[in-house]
């Protein structure tokens, strides 16, 4: 049995290293403490709410979040705005609806059941307004990038002047964490850009962290439920395994051989 | 099959059993004499059955919510992740379940290689196993296409394009597979249909696999034929059931860890980007369990020969019972084979590693050497080894090595008792 476990551990170690080296990027990302990592990881509610504010006031003018609805903002495990707050947020957006009885489209204030309003009609319109580059939908963005939250967090703070010898076209910016270092999104964050409702100082670092936390929740809205259930499931399995182990020893003791 | 005739005690039972001998079958399964020295490497058969059932059950639920349409597949997967009750759990079990399935099947196959389980009289079990493995790869590949992410789309494009290497009819076959002139909606719908079908084919083959197993009975770590039932065997229930159960639970702990804490680590980030026929990902890599074969494919400079090499790498396994000329089954008694066995394990792991890397420079060189060695192992080393190797004397029964300590001592004792 010992050699068996030794082999499994080796195998996992191997798989682990091969997958880490899988991500081709060799850049060291900026590190920060993410409250949602680890066995009991949970989102920081304040950070999620601030992150939503950054998204709405800054990112949402170009980036859509087509898989989120305003109701999600009040759901458990998310920013947990109150229902009233979420309704007010939804109502602050104009939603295109229809056709009505006359066959006309009309606009009305948003409701909880509405999806997040998109900044552009379609991908082509988004590209046309952004120099040909489509600002990606941010619903699952952190899961769609190799470095995950660390990558997004770093990217937002990774703008700097290009090193000598690198020339940039109009509308292209230098970012040390971007794949290939050239990015079509200009630096968006600057200290004090938003005024946080809870009085937190809106430094670039703080805003990056908050909006990245918000994006993580957007991509994994059930993360907290998953962590809670995972812990229970694994504890349950360990106890059951122990019980079955002793039953097995008992049963096999009848024939005097080692299991 | 057990020798004794089974007669149900109750009248109703007897009446039913005379017409459909299900009770005889159940009795056969519980009483099935199993070598008592089976180690934990033998528990993966049961674990694999669990994996198959898990994939089928979670797959059925997913199919209720998934929409097989190029414009809606990606959205429907996100719908499952967000709005379906416990949809995230079902999907993560299904996605990670595929990896767990392959992890278990690789251990199962390599157990067979170590203990010579594929040798006479178990060739049919082995060949059915290879067919199951091939179907698993087909099912996993098509399943990976269904979320219609970037890696789904481009993986499908690369793999289906392999058929274009076939001379004369290749291009036509690819068009036929796609149902058009590129991977598109018709490809997705047929992949979904086949992905739904294959697990049930596998289920049927698993029944045959177990049936074929129950004719000669299990091989065992000593690799000798044993009398059944005898002092060397235990009834399947409760002895093997509880042991398999224990191993399965430990397996489930690992499984649960992936599902609940790192559900996306085995997948590729690009698959959370919706498929875009106009944007090719920087590196197209298959899932980890296909990497060794991907490495073999890319190590050959010619496309057609690459495909041939990749397919041969799998099909060569079916010829294994005849390529391995040694009369001794278990590597325990084959000191040289044991070393070559571990070299092969390392070789396959290396192939897997370089399969994930870009096919250039040193990686390509390593891939070529490892590919050559892979075939060398099966085509040259195994046949020659069986004829040349000096094996350690094999004991006559299982009971002896267990009670007597070293296998050699056991043999000596056996000879003594035979002389007396």
Please identify the structural class of chain A as seen in this structure.
mainly alpha
Question: Could you tell me the strand content of chain B as a percent range?
Answer: under 5%
Average residue pLDDT of chain B: 93
> How would you sum up the global shape of chain B?
globular
Strand proportion of chain A: under 5%
Briefly note the CATH topology name of the largest domain in chain A: Cytochrome Bc1 Complex, Chain D, domain 2
Assembly type of the shown chains?
heterodimer
Low-confidence runs of at least 5 consecutive residues of chain B: none
Q: How much helical structure, as a percent, in the residues of chain B?
A: 55-70%
Number of distinct helices of chain A: 7
- Largest interface, counted with CB-CB under 8 A? A-B, 46 and 45 residues
In helices, the fraction of residues of chain A equals: 25-40%
Low-confidence runs of at least 5 consecutive residues of chain A: 20-25
Number of domains of chain A: 2
Query: How do the strands line up in the largest sheet of chain A?
Result: 1-2
Strand order of the largest sheet of chain B: 1-2
Q: Terminal Cα separation of chain B, in Å?
A: 33 Å
Mean pLDDT of chain A, rounded to whole units?
91
- What is the gyration radius of chain B calculated from CA atoms? 24 Å
Overall structural class of chain B, as computed from helix and strand content, comes to mainly alpha
Number of helices of chain B: 17
How does this structure look, described?
The complex is a heterodimer of chains A (259) and B (420). Chain A has 259 residues and is mostly helical. Helices cover 40% and strands 5% of the residues of chain A. Chain A has two domains: 27-68 and 115-220, Orthogonal Bundle (Cytochrome Bc1 Complex, Chain D, domain 2), CATH 1.10.760.10; 222-259. Chain A has helices at 2-20, 45-57, 83-91, 123-129, 148-156, 204-219, 223-252, and strands at 94-97, 106-109, 173-174, 182-183. In chain A, helix 5 (148-156) runs antiparallel to helix 6. Chain A starts with a helix and ends in a 7-residue tail after the last helix. Chain B has 420 residues and is an all-alpha fold. In chain B, strands 1-2 form a two-stranded antiparallel sheet. Chain B has helices spanning 11-19, 22-31, 44-65, 73-82, 87-115, 123-145, 150-161, 170-178, 185-214, 236-261, 291-299, 303-315, 320-323, 335-355, 361-388, 399-404, 407-419, and strands at 33-35, 233-235. Chain B contains 17 helices and two strands. Classes of the chains: A mainly alpha (259), B mainly alpha (420). The interface between A and B is large, with 46 and 45 residues.
